[in-house]
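Table S4 entry, HEAT repeat domain-containing protein.
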Amino acid sequence: MKKRIFLCLAAAVFIQFLPAEEKTAPVSLEDQRRETLRYGTENEIIDLIQALKNENADYLDGELASVIETTKNGKILSGVFTFFADREKPGLEKRAMAAVEYWDEETNDSVIAAIDYLGKVKAEEATDPLIDIINSNESRFMNNAFRALGRIGSASKDESDFIADYLIDFYDQKNPTDENMREIIVALGELGNRKGTAFLAEIAGNNDERATRRMAALGALSKIGDSEGLPAVIKSLQSSDPNVRAAAVAALGPFAGDEVETAILEAFRDSYYRTRIGAAQAASERKMTAAVPYLKYRAERDDVPAVKDEAIKALGAINTSETSEILSTLFFNRKNSDRVRLVAGEMLIKNDPDAFAERFIAELDEAKTKNQTPLYNGLSRIIAQAETKKVEDLALRFLTAGGVVEKSYAIDMAVKNKLTSLGNQIKELTDPKNGSLSRKARDALDKLGIPYSDAEPD
């Protein structure tokens, strides 16, 4: 008996002095997440999907696809379908088709998410089941099904012609609701088929039509870009409804000709702010140098911040030496609002990061010194996307002395600019205790081609 007690005490002492990793092997974040998928509640799984979305992570896609093969849980199904749809990622078509074909056995949310997914991945095989669900007059699903049909048809000429005829016939013959009408119009725009041009032009140019339908038709004509639709767009510029005028200006982007450019310039004078926004967007899409003086005026003096934003973005899209000088003045003038400076700075860094990175970082440091936190955070976000080696010192500083968000930005800079010199600092973040940052660091090392080991000290 005494011998047995002695042996037990000896074993206890031995275990006490074992290395920590031999007592309990640490569970990695990835393994924890896989356990959540196997055993977690619907809310835990939805929270996990949101975390993966925030991290732009895809390493659990296979496990997520397996989960929905057997589950009937509507929240999980809709969460996974939406997560894949947002990235237009194929792989769930079979399960989504089953949800559409046997819709009466699924929750409304999961059927809607399945329809949206099939549209986003342009699953041609879903055309007939979607038409069946529309013809069943299940109002819960019709709007999403119309939209999905438009997206699917945009990827196939044969399907496109068939779907265009079906949508127009449904609009004319089936007495759809106002909401269904608008969705059919939007779907024809997604489809991009010229068969829809005359139909849409009639709606857009009709002063007796509801404004919402006219606006939808104008947007659809813009997506199709067929010159046959231009007269209806031009006519709509004279509408008494300011929202229709704004939609008409925004629709001018893909069309050509002096008449179009004149209309865009004239729209900068419209008292309705959305029309001015539309003019800026049209000028941006066309890279319209003739609009630069108007855009400069709006960027500096418009009393609506959203108009200033679009004017600045348009100047960035036009991207000439003149617009670069205008943007530089807007950004480096510290008397301008943070909002103006951030939009202008983003355009400068996007267009010519080598020329502006160093001065941009100086402004970032100035914002931190003066405790201008919103400005500092915005500038940090922008510089993290700069494609220039001139961010290397800043990335190193963020990695060694920054907070979690700054470290995350530093990893972005390292990956975007192949800053392999920062490999050791990134390795230090791979410890699972760093949570999502650990996963991001590992992904970054993989992309940079830098080997690392789970056994390395962090």
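The radius of gyration is 28 Å.
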